[in-house]
Fold:
Amino acid sequence: MEPRAPLSVWTYTVRNLRKVLPTLIILTFVVMIVIVILSTLRGIKDGTLVFAREFGHYTVVMPKRKSTVSEETKRRIREHPSVDRVVESRNCMFRVRALIASVPYQIRAVRRDDMEYIVRRAGLRLVEGRLPEPGSNEVVLHEIFMKANGWRIGAEFGMDVSEDDWMPGRFRVVGVLAGDTPMGLGSYEYVSHPMLYFFSEKLWERLLVFAKPGREAEMKAALDSMDQIRTWDHAKAEVEISKSFDRLYLIVNFISILLIAVVALVVGLLHNIFFGQRSDEFAILLAVGHPQGRLLRKVVLETALLMTLAWGAGTGLALGCLALFHTLVLEPRGIPLPVWQPLPVLVSLALPLVAQVFATTTVFSRLRRLDPIQIIERRG
Amino acid sequence: MLQGRELKLTYRDGGAEVRAVDGVTVAVGEREFVGIIGPSGSGKSSLLYLLAGLKQPTSGSVRFRDREFATLGTGGLAGVRRRHFGFVFQNHFLIPYLTGLENVLAGGGTLPEADRLLSELQVSHTREKFPYQMSAGERQRVAIVRAIAHGPDVLFADEPTASLDRPNAEIVVEHLRRTAEAGTLFVVTHDETILRGANRVLRMFAGRLTEE
Structure:
């Protein structure tokens, strides 16, 4: 067996696994937990934002102070040079099983040619079935909704199917869409039926305004300048969703900081205990003339190696857990929780860094005060 | 070569002042074997620590060749110890997770010299063993190899055989004597038989040299 470098940090680590492993295991699992929890919680917000993606393709225009958007306003919007298309739509709600409870989600009931335009603009593709026939109670839904509700082609919803549902009547799913933008599309003519929706017609009118590519800001400015309307777009959706998570994140951040502080304290204390068990080693090394600076460096590097290994292992474990969770649990249930979050991984770095600082600071002060003669005389 | 002048080492123990070394002047020449003998608490180990730069005297001075210890900082003293001194204590102080050979290398010796000396002290078989796998005598002999593998000018030995049985003690003493032929040996002990062959034997009592 070739001799190892006696003062090498790798030599200490490899030859003292029984001492090193408890700290390594604690840190690894805490790093893993911090990343998994923070990624999942942050993913809830990002997952919620997934359902706002459709607003990245168009701006919803609603009347202000009146029940409908006037024809004059519609003409001004259509004729604005930044506008590519104005789609008249009706809202048609259905229930989606979300993370917590079932929530209403809108299906855009539009004319057939508008439907094909929207599918193209939103980068969607039909993966099963067909688009709804004009004037029918047929709808096409994104696969995320189908998975969330456990539906297949032919599934039905509406108050005639379930009293807890949102829309009067009965609707049937005839097609499934796939792509980055969860959406549902139905027939404008059917939802405009006066017998079904007479009393609610005015509440459900929406214009979907599509900008020409590259002219979104110009279109937004033009719409904002129109006094008779109010708009809803992706920026507003993002602000609303972010605000709703602010308090939750305040609590999560507090818990994370507390967890990091406690674990850093535990690791520091473990280090101190193990250092105490090595007082003979440091005493003889100081006595035979190894500079204190070299021993301090040894301590720092030993701790740094341990922290690096723990953080790497913890991050790897966390990403593996998240990948499994996403593949086995979230994706089959249509839960759009993006678990690949860089910020939690960066936050988890605070754990080994704080633990390193605390551990080496406490051991530093003991090493600086170490009198090798006291150790030598005590053991002699 | 190594000189201590009017050395004093005092400290407080509870309310009382203890004079561990009380005005000792001693000089050790090249290739000299000097022994210090005395009862427990006589200050002989404290004198060794002062001469080795392991403790700072309360007053007095220590000089090694042309260097005054008082002018050297902690780093300077460590450098003198590392390059010119070797140490054997009553306890072997081998690092438990290093093999015999690695412990010797930790003392600053080279690989060929370490192997040669391990063989000379009949502990080659401990080269790849850990201290817990060695006998008490083997551990102390490895500690001696660690102390001399880097070719120190002065070897300080503080009760080097106190923990050993007779056969092991004799091997250790024999090798210490051989070391004295090559360099300077400064031994502190209460066992006079170790000091056979010493150029000088100093007696200490109550922190003072009483006779030579």
